[in-house]
Amino acid sequence: MAKGLTADDLRTEPEDVLVTKLKEAKEELFNLRFQAATGQLESHGRLRTVKREIARIYTVMRERELGIVTVADDAAEGEK
């Protein structure tokens, strides 16, 4: 998963890529939680970062579902 994932980057991605990134982030979060429980986690800040990335992905997916932002709208704004 890329570090510094922004909502603007996610809005340009197609739906299937968002689903893939969401799955990867959830797997990473599971692994980080497992490491935290066993005392092997070195970077506690990464837990927070991954949770926020998951929230960003869900937000972009929900925006599309509600019709607030679509991929075509975002592409048009990027050209201006």
Structure description:
This protein has one domain: Orthogonal Bundle (Helix Hairpins), CATH 1.10.287. Helix 2 runs antiparallel to helix 3. The chain is elongated. It has four helices and no strands. The longest helix is centred in the first third of the chain and has 24 residues. The protein is mainly α and 80 residues long.
SSE layout and pairings?
Elements: H1 7-11, H2 15-38, H3 44-66, H4 71-79
Pfam family, one: Ribosomal_L29
Organism: Actinomadura harenae
GO molecular function: structural constituent of ribosome
CATH fold group: Helix Hairpins
Distance between the termini: 29 Å
CATH architecture call? Orthogonal Bundle
**Overall pLDDT:** 88
Proportion of residues in helical segments: over 70%
Elements, N to C (H/E) = HHHH
The number of domains: 1
CATH class: Mainly Alpha
How many distinct beta strands?
A: 0
Q: What shape does the CA trace take?
A: elongated
